[in-house]
# Entry
Amino acid sequence: MAENLRGKRGDPNYRLISGYIPKDLALLFKTICAATETDQSKALEEMITHWAREKQSILDEVRQNK
# Structure
């Protein structure tokens, strides 16, 4: 089996997402990640997981009403 030299980018279990946020927020995020030696992808994954779990009930409700 070939070694995955592209990390998450080459892993079929990961997908790229993107969006625009205010410049000040982006700079703050990057600064905090650097200061805490936190991988930006990992920080985003944690935040999106938290947000998605909070919103799960909305999705469940929409699915029930279909």
Q: What stands out?
A: The CA atoms of residues 25 and 63 lie 33 Å apart. The mean pLDDT is 91. The radius of gyration is 16 Å. Residues 40-64 form the longest helix (25 residues).
